[in-house]
Amino acid sequence: STQSTGNTMNSSTSPSELHDTVENLKDVKQKISSLSKELNLKTEPRLVAVSKTKGIELIKACYDAGHRHFGENYVQELVTKSKTLPEDIHWHFIGHLQSNKCKQVAGISSLWIVETVDSKKLADTLNKACSSVGRSAPLNIFIQVKTSSEESMLKHLG
Q: What is the DSSP string of 116-153?
């Protein structure tokens, strides 16, 4: 079993955990496919496997089983994993991105999307970072829109 130590590169995964994870992934993908057909969806929903705190070996096993979309919420883990794992993985940065980490994230060529862009300032900083690192492909983003008068949890945490 792996634990979040900040460095998942040396994490060891048991053969049974590798097998169980791949089988669970296949099961979830099959359920998504079946429901999509049952509901006559034109496009199947995309499954993003959140790989935070998981070691390279486990992610590679899921990749070898055909999965390509993985999510990370720690910049350093995303940087390290994207350099180590196959280039055709579509990485999703999930969670809050700090402005001072934009250039580091924008430099990841296999980064497919930044989820949760929650301010114009962050969008502008990310756009400038993409230009400064010479990113050739446009970067997908999800924009977080405030729909209520509730204060952000981040304000209470900081």
A: EE--HHHHHHHHHHHHHTT--SPPEEEE----SSPPPH
